[in-house]
Design a protein that fits this description.
Elements lengths: L1 H11 L3 H19 L15 H19 L4 H6 L1 H6 L5 H20 L3 H10 L7 H26 L5 H23 L8 H7 L2 H9 L5 H24 L1
Helix pairs in contact: 1-6, 2-3, 3-8, 3-9, 6-8, 6-12, 8-9, 8-11, 8-12, 9-10
């Protein structure tokens, strides 16, 4: 499994595209956080990374499918999947190896953003940032990235076209993140069902962890979604 993980890592950084994707992710977040007027934390007057943690999931929604779109689609297209299937590895080991390889790249993209927290902490005159909420928000971002990674790999397992894999992955990630929130706001669900529908979405559980409280229900939700999409991916590999 770790051999597949290493291969995924090397494949992503074997071309300039991988470095550009990470650079664009950090550049967009930096501009939103310190330059653009509507989200510039320097104009807020208090030390908070709330705008970053609100906008980062939307940037991840496009970054993660970019990372995962080649995971299995390229294997099909280049004919290396047959070679991969001859290795003494179970389909589950291949899937989890791909998953951890892509997730490691996502974590590496998030690590430099800690500089934002350190910068805001140093710029703060009194108090500083809420360490608990910030740590919880980073944990939420990692779980969010893990779910998006599982969805992206699952989308890549259905096709040999990387563009189709990217679009499908980004679309499903958008539905999981914001779709249930939008549905819960429909007037027909105002009688009380809106809360339970909202609970089905990623955003509800991401906001819950971002408060700095790690609830077991949120962890079970994220892990269940990850296992569900990786199971579908595994079934696709077995069928092929």
């Amino acid at each position: 499994m770790w051999m597949i993980c290493k291969k995924e890592w090397q494949q992503f950084f074997s071309s300039l595209t991988g470095y550009i994707a990470l650079a664009v992710f950090l550049l967009i977040n930096g501009l939103l956080l310190f330059v653009f007027p509507d989200s510039n934390i320097l104009d807020f007057g208090y030390a908070s990374l709330g705008s970053f943690f609100s906008l980062a999931p939307w940037v991840l929604l496009f970054l993660v499918p970019t990372i995962t779109m080649r995971s299995l689609a390229d294997e099909y297209k280049q004919g290396t999947f047959e070679l991969l299937s001859t290795l003494p590895l179970k389909p589950s080991q291949i899937v989890w190896g791909k998953f951890f390889g892509a997730l490691l790249i996502v974590v590496c993209a998030l690590l430099p953003t800690i500089i934002y927290a350190l910068s805001v902490q140093q710029l703060s005159i009194t108090g500083g940032i809420d360490i608990g909420a910030t740590a919880g928000s980073y944990i939420g971002l990692i779980f969010l990235g893990a779910v998006f990674t599982a969805v992206g790999i699952c989308a890549s397992s259905f096709t040999q076209n990387t563009v189709v894999a990217f679009i499908a992955g980004a679309f499903v990630c958008f539905l999981l993140y914001n779709g249930f929130d939008a549905i819960s706001k429909l007037p027909v669900f105002n009688a009380g069902a809106d809360y339970y529908i909202e609970m089905l979405g990623i955003n509800f559980h991401y906001r819950s962890i971002s408060r700095g409280v790690i609830d077991l229900r949120d962890l079970v939700y994220f892990i269940s979604i990850i296992i569900f999409f990786l199971f579908i991916t595994q079934r696709n590999l077995v069928r092929r």
